[in-house]
Amino acid sequence: MKILGVDTSSGVATAAICDDEKLICEFVLNNKMTHSQTLMPIIDMCFKHSELTVNDIDLFAVSEGPGSFTGLRIGVTTVKGLAHGANKPIVGVNTLEAMAYNLPFCPYLISPIMDARRGEVYNGVYRFLEGALTEVKSPRALPVSQLIEELSASGEKVVFLGDGVPVFRSELAEKLGDIAIFAPQSVGMQKASSVCMAAGKKEQMHYSKLSPVYLRKSQAERELEERGKK
């Protein structure tokens, strides 16, 4: 089964094509250009260099969130359009769960963190048990101070990855000490190949049923509510 995976949940744009035996092609772009500029070109490059077409894909997979509201809308809408055109099923993969697949067979807790602003992170906590990824804490938005309290109480070594690491690394290292481990840059960001890995274990759906998962209201919605209260 050939899977096209896409992730645009952060500043990283990434697309990959995998089959049951190998990673065929993957592009990762982490630069200043917007996803509206980069996503279709890197998908096109995946098809070109894999010598495949959209009709060769059996399953389309996309990071459904949490993450950047604009980025998620671009990624989900693009992949839904491709699935519609090819008349193939689609799978939405939680961004944080997909990131945990960057560290297969890791012996420690895995804690992806995405910067959610205002001192908060999008976070889930995972571990591999006998080669299978299991969820310890389901995806949520919470203050980084609360996450530190939870992980400190567990006393287990934990690997952090994601765009929240550069923002909160000093605080995490100071307050968690030796139990805090930081993933190297090569696996510290979103990877479409990990979206493909997670997608193969998910229930497939019709493209029309997939929507982004934001976890919390947008900044514009929060500001509107605050103005209403005043």
Strand content: 25-35%
Number of helices: 7
Mean pLDDT, nearest integer?
94
Range of helix content: 25-40%
Number of strands: 10
Largest sheet: 5 strands, mixed
Net shape = globular
Secondary-structure element sequence? EEEHEHEHEEEHEHEHH
Q: State the distance separating the first and last CA atoms.
A: 55 Å
Task: Indicate the low-confidence ranges by residue numbers.
Answer: 220-225
Helices and strands: which structural class? alpha/beta
Tell me the Rg in angstroms: 18 Å
Strand order of the largest sheet: 3-2-1-4-5
Protein model, in words:
Residues 220-225 have low confidence and may be disordered. This protein is globular. The protein is α/β, with parallel strands linked by helices and 230 residues long. It has seven helices and ten strands. The protein has a five-stranded mixed sheet with strand order 3-2-1-4-5, with helices on both faces. Strands 8-7-6-9-10 form a five-stranded mixed sheet. Helix 1 (35-50) runs parallel beside helix 2 (69-86) and helix 4 (144-154) crosses helix 5.
